Amino acid sequence: MTAPWTPQHPQIDPPTEGSAAPAQGGRPPLLRRGAWPVVVAILTGLVVVGSVVVVAVNVDGAARRAADAAAADSFVPAAGRAPTAADVPVTVPDLSGKTGNAASEALGAAGVLNVTFARNDALMTQPVIGQSPAAGTKQRAGDPVHVTLQPEAPAAPPPSAPAESHRKLSSRDWLVIAKNPDAHVGERVIVHGRVTQFDAATGTTAFRASVDGVRQKQAHDYDTNTMLGGDAADLEDIVVDDEFTAEVTVMGSLTYKTQIGGSTTVPVLLVQTISRTS
Q1: Per-10-residue mean pLDDT for the chain, 278 residues long?
Q2: How far, in whole angstroms, is CA 7 from its chain's centroid?
Q3: pTM of the predicted model, to two decimals?
């Protein structure tokens, strides 16, 4: 803290006995008649300044303790910028199991001002299959929350047209699909893989997995990061690190935000049947 300013006064030597009086119009001695009120005012001012300094220290200490106590829940704007509605701290709600419309309402009720939905042509009536950041994250109201909805399943074929059977793939066949999933929408294939994420962030109807067209001997040999979705009842027995075989329909591609702030695009598959292989 900067030391308080103290008035400075020139040193005045007391007049010696027999010294001459000051010339007419010169500066009168400090203690001549009529100067006492000035001296009293100066002394009073010093006392007041001293008191103010003491109070300021006390107030500053209390304010610092209060600021430290609230630091975890505070978002301070950059220096020189007044706080706005975007600086208000909010807690990201859990969106799992909600439709896009319900998720939007929940985020609005929580005070989130910046919401983006993944561009995968999913309707707002579709369920949420991913959110970033995760539920419970504390952030500023103006920071973005990214939401991914499950793409709508393709229309069922007419009753007169039997459903196409799921075809087996080679590793190369799968790489062709994974390279451009949007060119293979509607194809029904059999894939194999290992579950890499199936938690509160993905919800109960979707999970991430490393996938291939053939079953691998080692779990780490599955290479393609893929998003799979299906009925919660069909996926109830599937957990992280399970290896599986699934009959799926190719739904296209999905771009979503990663936890480190980047983005990635992956194939999206709709599960018809799934079974654990290990």
Answers
A1: 45 46 47 45 39 34 42 56 87 93 93 88 89 93 92 70 82 96 95 95 92 95 95 94 97 84 90 94
A2: 52
A3: 0.46
